[in-house]
Design a protein that fits this description.
heterodimer, A: 314 residues, alpha/beta, Rossmann fold, Alpha-Beta Plaits, 4-stranded antiparallel β-sheet, B: mainly alpha, 14 helices
């Protein structure tokens, strides 16, 4: 169903967008490689949708550049847009059109050859399970169906650069699973960015994650790398009042792990290492003559990481 | 060209798929026929008993003030309200292709409605002798005047986010450009200023067509006006980004 696509990389450099006095996106830079699904995360108003709108060409940047392969968004916007499948957050559709009419119109306008329109549209109908609603005006459809029609319109020309703003919004659990599976298969050989509020979705389908807060990137890593973090869990015997200040003098960050209870006089702590290696933890703890029961790399949930990185966001 | 054709087809179909198009077309055709045949103040076809359409073409610019805003109000405002503008502007289309497509669709609908009124000259032609040159010239003027009003309505629609505002503002703009060619008002401005104001009035350039005179300068004026409005619309669209 999907043809193997090119190997163009999306590169965003120092992208800034100001709306009068408000800076929506501030000097952000990242790259999205083909074959890698990149998730864009952030609280409401963080700048995710603005970033997607800038990449899609709906908005022009105040400064900075977006390039896709050899094409720059300033000089070759139409070249990029002809390769782009963009699903906006609102999944807006022409409500007076029939589902079939809409898909044919979008296919034609996206440059699908006249002889191929019918087969491409049929594939989308099959893929997004729309066959029972083809002759129904879009205004009569439920939110989930509208989302599927919008997704079908986004993919009808078999794009190589795909930007999806909350693609599973309004879908039922079966549909969510189906669409996630579809996104995963599309992402294998395409350049794909998706924005979502569902952290589980990022864990399930994304390879890379970019977290935006207040218009700037606060994390840009692989999903695995983000989990790995740079923290250690240690369980030490002793009075917290004497142990904790010592730990704080040795490490960048030291705090008691509130979610775990003290056991047999051993209190759990989290140590932020900064530029130290995990082996430094051993030697430092040994030198300080702490009684250690357990020591391991501390893996935070994506929710915790997200909360920490976007804390204080309005 | 292929893209413009697709947009024209989609937009024109919308006029025929939604009741608003039929409502305003029926309203326009009924009103123009009523005003021409029965009129106001003894100037009707049956009062004058002359097989001429001069009075008919006198009413058209006035009715366009209400009819044209109804045609153009949704062109951009609805895209903005429903969010489809984001889809439209990220398709591989030039701004000019979209604007021209939208303009042509509204113009085609207007021409269709105006041609539906051909029953009027046909009736007169059956009843008496009709100057077909005057009828042809009048209809050409109506189509050009309508095109100019539509291009203005298109610009106003792109400046608003809801159809009601677009309708009201276009109505005011059409009324203004009509009054700019209305002699009792122009008298207040004296010959020089009045002449300059009248030059930019859309209804003033329709006068020669109404009288059955084909003046290429008026044709040039209408096409220039439409081109300027389309260019202006393109600037507004770029500003939205």
């Amino acid at each position: 169903m999907w043809q193997s696509k090119g190997s163009n990389m999306l590169r965003v450099e120092n992208l800034t967008k100001k709306f009068e006095e408000k800076i929506a996106v501030n000097q952000i830079s990242f790259t999205v490689k083909p074959g890698v699904i990149t998730g864009l995360l952030g609280p409401n108003g963080a700048g995710k949708t603005t970033t997607m709108r800038l990449i899609s060409g709906f908005l022009s940047p105040t400064s900075g550049t977006v390039t896709y392969g050899n094409f720059g968004i300033d000089s070759d916007l139409k070249e990029i847009q002809s390769r782009l499948g963009y699903l906006p957050e609102t999944a807006a559709l022409y409500s007076d059109m029939l589902v079939l009419e809409y898909l044919e119109y979008i296919a034609r306008i996206r440059g699908v050859e006249e002889g191929e329109i019918s087969s491409r549209v049929n594939k989308m109908i099959e893929l997004c399970e729309l066959s029972t609603h083809l002759k129904i005006p879009i205004s009569f459809l439920s939110k989930g169906f509208k989302q599927r029609v919008a997704l079908a319109g986004t993919l009808v020309h078999d794009p190589e650069l795909i930007i999806l703003d909350e693609p599973t919004s309004g879908l039922d659990p079966n549909q969510i699973s189906h669409i996630r599976h579809l996104i995963k298969s599309l992402g294998k050989d395409r350049t794909l960015i998706l924005s979502t509020h569902i952290l589980q979705e990022v864990e399930d389908i994304c390879d890379d994650v970019i977290i935006i807060n207040g218009g700037t990137i606060v994390a840009n890593s692989t999903v695995k790398g983000l989990h790995r973090g740079n923290s250690m869990y240690v369980s030490l015997r002793g009075d917290e009042k004497t142990v904790l200040p010592k730990l704080k003098s040795l490490f960048l960050l030291a705090e008691k792990l509130e979610t775990e209870e003290e056991q047999d006089g051993f209190i759990p702590y989290i140590l932020g290492l900064g530029d130290k290696n995990p082996q430094d933890v051993f030697s430092n703890l040994k030198k300080s003559e702490f009684e250690v029961r357990e020591i391991k790399v501390y893996k935070k949930s994506l929710e915790t990481i997200f909360e920490e990185l976007t804390r204080g966001a309005k | 060209m292929k893209n413009i054709k697709s947009i024209v087809k989609k937009e024109t179909t919308t006029y025929f798929n939604t009741p608003i198009g039929y409502i305003f077309a029926s309203f326009f055709l009924l009103l123009i026929s009523f005003l021409f045949f029965y009129g106001l103040g003894g100037n009707s076809f049956w009062d004058l008993k002359v097989s001429s359409m001069e009075q008919y073409f006198l009413w058209i610019p006035i009715l366009f003030i209400i009819f044209i805003p109804a045609i153009t109000m949704r062109l951009w405002a609805e895209e903005e309200r429903s969010g489809t503008l984001e889809v439209l502007l990220t398709l591989p289309l030039n701004d000019l292709e979209i604007i021209v497509g939208k303009f042509l669709s509204a113009w085609i609908f207007l021409i269709f409605v105006v041609l539906c009124s051909l029953l009027v000259p046909l009736t007169i032609w059956i009843l008496g002798t009709l100057d077909l040159g005057l009828v042809f010239c009048g209809y050409l003027g109506v189509i050009l005047l309508g095109g100019a009003y539509i291009s203005m309505g298109l610009v106003i629609s792109s400046l608003t986010k809801d159809q009601i505002s677009a309708f009201m503002l276009t109505l005011l703009a059409c009324l203004l450009t009509f009054l700019m060619g209305y002699q009792p008002i122009l008298q207040f401005f004296g010959n020089t200023l009045g002449g300059a104001i009248a030059f930019f009035s859309l209804s003033q350039h329709f006068e020669s067509f109404r009288m059955g005179v084909f003046d290429p300068r008026d044709l040039y004026f209408y096409f220039s006006f439409i081109s300027v409005m389309i260019a202006f619309n393109s600037i507004i669209l770029r500003g939205k980004k």
